[in-house]
Design a protein that fits this description.
- By secondary structure, the chain is mostly helical.
- The chain is 85% helix and 0% strand.
- Helix 2 packs antiparallel against helix 3.
- The protein is elongated.
Length: 124
């Protein structure tokens, strides 16, 4: 099996296991519902950061594609870590707004950089 596919399946199964264990802990009275939500959604932020960390490790023959991948990787890692950090420590309304804003900002940085690379390529 492909190494990337194994990593993807591991993240998926790991998130499901954490969600099930957290739900069981809530039913047994060890944690409250907010903690379960924070843990499961925080895992999503860590998964985004993990994907960003893996992005530059793939090979592309074009130097522009490699540049775009590096910028996309950095923006994913940073926005994923901000997302996870907000869900871990901020009040839930702040975590929702700030986390979604961080991910959207990361996407905007990536798209803006790709558009600027394309504009440079057209002028050259």
């Amino acid at each position: 099996m492909n190494k990337q596919l194994i990593t993807d399946l591991t993240w998926g199964v790991g998130t499901l296991v954490v969600a099930l264990v957290a739900s069981l802990a809530r039913k047994l009275g060890y944690v409250d519902g907010d903690t379960v939500t924070r843990v499961v959604i925080g895992m999503t932020g860590l998964m985004i950061a993990s994907y960003g960390n893996r992005m530059p490790k793939t090979f592309f023959p074009s130097s522009e594609a490699r540049q775009a991948r590096r910028v996309a990787a950095w923006s994913l890692v940073l926005s994923g870590l901000v997302y996870a950090g907000l869900w871990a420590f901020a009040p839930i309304p702040v975590a929702v707004a700030g986390g979604c804003g961080a991910v959207l900002l990361g996407m905007a940085v990536t798209i803006g950089y790709c558009i600027s690379l394309r504009a440079k390529a057209k002028t050259a």
